[in-house]
Design brief:
The protein is mainly α. The chain has 2 domains: 242 residues, no CATH class; 45 residues, no CATH class. The chain is 57% helix and 4% strand. It contains 20 helices and 5 strands. The strands form 2 sheets. A 3-stranded antiparallel β-sheet has the order 4-3-5. Strands 1-2 form a two-stranded antiparallel ribbon. Bound molecules: iron/sulfur cluster (3 copies). The site of one iron/sulfur cluster has 14 residues, from helix 14 and helix 15.
Length: 390
C-alpha cells in the first residue's frame, strides 16, 4: 500500500524532479549503444549486400528487431514517465510482433495497388501503394503522426531504446537556423513522390532503376545516422531525412491532430521545449498561433503534455470531433498509463486479442488465400462481381 502511494506521488513530481529530460550517460553505455547500432547495420549489410554468413537471426534484417526487444526491456524498466513507459511497451511489442514475428513466421505477401512488387505484409506499413499503407494514412489523418512515429516504427524504436544515450544531442544546437534545417526532409519527400509515381507505371528499366535508387536513398541515411548519433542526436533521421515522416507530418497539418496550448495557465517554464526530441518550440508556437501547436514535426510522444506542471498542454485529435469536451491533458494521459487502474485493465487484454486476431489472419491468409494475384479477384467476387471481368 505504502509502495503504491509512493509510486503514485512519484508520477506527479514537481518540475525540478521531472524525469523526461534527456540524461547524461557514461562512456560504456554510449559504447554499448554504438555496438548495438553497428550490429544492426552488419545484419542489413550481410543480408542485402555481402551474403557472407548466410542469413542467421544474428545477422539479417531481423537482427535490428531482436536488438529492439533486448534494449527495449531495459528502457521500459528504467523509464520513469508512466505514459512514455506505456508507449515503449506498445512500441517494442508492435515492432516485435508486426515487424519481426509475423513476417518471419508467416511470410505472407501484401498486394501493392498498381505495382507488382512484393513485401512481407507489415513492413509494408511504410511502403506506398500497399493496402496497409493507405490504412495508416487514414489513421495518421485522424490521430496524428504518432500512429507510426510514436508507437509503431522500428526506426523510432531502435533510436529510442538503443540510441537513448544520445538524446541530449537532439537539443544541441537550439538555434533558429537549426530549427530551419527541418525543411531538408521535403527533399526526401519529393523523391518519395517520384517513387509513388513510379509504382503506378508499368514496370520497366526506368521505374525499376528509380525505385532501386529511392530504396538506397532511404536505407543509407537510415543506417548511417545510427553511427552519427553522437553528433546529430538519436532523432536526426526523423527530424531531417525521413520521407515517410514528412508524409505523416503533412497529414499532421491537414488532419485532426494538434496540441492545444493554454496561455493563461502557462508559466513559460520552458520544460515542454526541453523534453521535446524534435526540438519544437512548443509554448512559443502555441502563443504565436492562438493556442495551436500544429506542426508537421510533432511525433506525438506526449512528453511535453505529460510533463507540463500546469496542465497547459493537451492533445487534440479526431476524438474531439465527437467529444469536444474531451481534454487529453497531463492527468488524462497519466491516468491512461496507470495499468493498476481497474478501468484500464481491459486494455492489455484487448491489445493481446487484436494481436492474436492479426496472427490468425496472417496464418489464414498465407495458407488459404494464396498468391498476390488471387486476393483482388477474391475481393472482386466478394462484391458480387463476376471474376471473369477482373
Ligand atoms: S520519422 Fe520516419 S523513421 Fe522516424 S519514426 Fe517517423 S516514419 Fe519512422
Ligand atoms: S506549456 Fe507547460 S511546460 Fe511549457 S512552458 Fe508552459 S507551463 Fe512550462
Ligand atoms: S511537441 Fe510534445 S508530443 Fe510533440 S514531439 Fe515534442 S514533446 Fe513530443
Amino acid at each position: 500500500m505504502e509502495a503504491t502511494r509512493t509510486l503514485r506521488s512519484q508520477r506527479f513530481m514537481p518540475v525540478d524532479q521531472q524525469r523526461s529530460l534527456a540524461g547524461h550517460y557514461r562512456w560504456w553505455v554510449k559504447g554499448l549503444s554504438l555496438i548495438a547500432f553497428s550490429w544492426a547495420i552488419a545484419g542489413w549489410l550481410n543480408e542485402t549486400w555481402f551474403y557472407g554468413f548466410g542469413s542467421p537471426i544474428g545477422l539479417n534484417r531481423y537482427t535490428e528487431y531482436a536488438l529492439i526487444l533486448v534494449f527495449g526491456l531495459w528502457r521500459i524498466h528504467a523509464e520513469k514517465n508512466p505514459y512514455t513507459r506505456k508507449r515503449l511497451i506498445f512500441l517494442v511489442a508492435n515492432v516485435t510482433v508486426l515487424w519481426w514475428l509475423i513476417p518471419w513466421l508467416f511470410p505472407f505477401i501484401e498486394p501493392y495497388v498498381g505495382y507488382l512488387g512484393m513485401l512481407p505484409a507489415f513492413p509494408s506499413l511504410h511502403t506506398p501503394g500497399t493496402i496497409s499503407f493507405f490504412l495508416v494514412l487514414v489513421a495518421v489523418f485522424l490521430f496524428g503522426r504518432r500512429i507510426i512515429c510514436g508507437w509503431n516504427c522500428p526506426c523510432v524504436a531502435i533510436r529510442e531504446v538503443v540510441g537513448f544515450p544520445f538524446r541530449h544531442i537532439n537539443h544541441v544546437p537550439r538555434s533558429a537556423w537549426a530549427w530551419r534545417l527541418r525543411h531538408i526532409k521535403w527533399f526526401w519527400f519529393i523523391l518519395y513522390l517520384g517513387a509513388m509515381i513510379a509504382m503506378t507505371r508499368p514496370s520497366n528499366n526506368i521505374t525499376t532503376g528509380y525505385l532501386g535508387f529511392f530504396a538506397l536513398m532511404v536505407a543509407l541515411p537510415y543506417f548511417a545516422t545510427f553511427l552519427l548519433s553522437p553528433w546529430i542526436g538519436n532523432r536526426g533521421y526523423c527530424r531531417f531525412l525521413c520521407p515517410y515522416g514528412a508524409t505523416f507530418g503533412l497529414l499532421n497539418r491537414v488532419g485532426a491532430f494538434r496540441i492545444d496550448y493554454h496561455a493563461e495557465s502557462c508559466t513559460q517554464c520552458d520544460l515542454c521545449v526541453k523534453v521535446c526530441d524534435m526540438n519544437i518550440p512548443v509554448w512559443k508556437m502555441g502563443l504565436a498561433h492562438q493556442g495551436r501547436v500544429d506542426t508537421s514535426e510533432c511525433m506525438g510522444c506526449g512528453r511535453c503534455v505529460t510533463e507540463c506542471p500546469t496542465k497547459s498542454l493537451s492533445f487534440h485529435d479526431a476524438r474531439n470531433w465527437i467529444r469536444p469536451a474531451l481534454h487529453q491533458d497531463r492527468e488524462r494521459l497519466r491516468a491512461l498509463a496507470d495499468w493498476k487502474h481497474i478501468d484500464h485493465r481491459w486494455r492489455p487484454a484487448a491489445f493481446i486479442l487484436i494481436l492474436t486476431i492479426l496472427l490468425w489472419g496472417a496464418d489464414y491468409y498465407s495458407t488459404q488465400v494464396g498468391t498476390l494475384g488471387e486476393l483482388p479477384a477474391r475481393l472482386w467476387a466478394l462484391c458480387g462481381l463476376p471474376v471473369s471481368t477482373w
